[in-house]
Amino acid sequence: MLVEALDVLKRGQFILLHDSLDRENEVDMVIAAKYVTPDHISQMRQFAGGLICIAVDDVISKNLKLEYMHDILNQCSVNEHKNMIYHGTKYGDHPSFSMWINHTEAKTGITDYDRALTANEMARVAEMPEQYRMDHFTRMFKIPGHVPLLKSAPDLIKNRQGHTEMSTYLLRLAEMSSVSVICEMMDPITHRALNLDKAKKYADSNKIPMLDVDEVLNHSKIYA
Description:
The chain is α/β, with parallel strands linked by helices.
């Protein structure tokens, strides 16, 4: 299934990615940011319904000097607000949120067109030679925006097994720019995360490969 998933990502199509029963226990729609279209954003809104984010791998995160939002807030918040800051989650992890961005050509930033543009241009930043990335990033994006950047942990899935790290790890395996667009799948009936059985039915009916964390981790151990 992993080989099939990599081929699908290379063709600019969706895969589904489940993290773990012991973690978020959520299934995300995942696609390479390079190939995102407004129609893809629309599909994520309609058939996933969670937060549409751009995940950036550890190398690009370091090049762009991205920081975790909880660290940024800890540095600038007044004392009365510091106890509000997330430093860990209920499943024992840290949040991967960094800054929220819009591309400079976006109008409001929230339309399907604008979010696709922002995702495409982040992938273009990742494909640039390292010495040009920071200058282009700071000139072509504005903050705060409508699309959250997720900062991958150092060494990706070795240190954290979230959708952020797994999706960018898979794109690296596919030899693509490691910038993904991800969105959690929600259940409009239960108003909770879509359970695995329903996610598998969606995957089967739409012929979308579905991976879980064990398949990704087992691959990384084989080729470590």
